[in-house]
Amino acid sequence: MPPHSVVAGYDGSAAAWAAARYAAAEADTLRLVHAPLDRAAYAALGQLGLADDAQTAARRLVDAARAALLHEHPGLEVRAVVADRAPAAALVRATRSADLLVLGRYGGRTAAHVLAYAGCPVVVAGVAPDATGPVVLGLDDAVPHAPALWFAFDAAGRRGAALRICHVLPPDGAAGPDARRRLSEALAAWRPAFAEVPVAVDVLAGLDPAARLLDAAAGASLVVVGNRHREPGAVAAAVVANATCPVALVRDAPRRARLPVPSPSIRGM
């Protein structure tokens, strides 16, 4: 399996530390990217001595995080980077050479900008995942979004987990059999490339796709949703805000991906 290059944004907060730990567990190589804060912020984080400037405190903060991650993951290649630009710009730039970006679940303008312009899939991590749970992929069409499907299969394979694919239909369920057949046909080309990954397909009925997907994701290690546009759709945004496990938003496949089928044109969630 090709090396997995992961970037994590780190500002010293509890949310960012959760993201950094998640990123370290996923990565073969990891970059911690920190955009400098003001002196008051470093003082609040306990990283500012009387004679220190903000740059010194920034380096101390990110180096301490790097050391803690190396203690948990001996042998992991970790770089600690103090950026020379604003957080959103620094993180978007870092995604140009990464397979994955991990952010803490704290929202705000920085996260919104990064989600819109990141050059790789983004995982929003809030709590420690259930490492034994399945990967859940939410679809809004019976023809899967190829980058999201590749990402979900790859994530399940890396974890040794099952993949559960969920497609939500209106409550009457009249289109259920046809949707399941189309989805099974679309998956046929993918199974040889990921033969080691157990797959379950669920066609669910419900007026609220986000609520049904959140129910399906209970106990999951990761939820994956496709996102073809700059801003996450309503379902994706609701899942990011409310899921109890990390959520991956996938617009484009990572550079290392080898898609077994061309990416179909469908709408993102």
UniProtKB/TrEMBL annotation:
UspA domain span: 5-124, 134-251
Coiled coil: none
Transmembrane segments: none
InterPro entries: Rossmann-like_a/b/a_fold, UspA
Family indicated by similarity: Belongs to the universal stress protein A family.
Protein name, per record: Universal stress protein
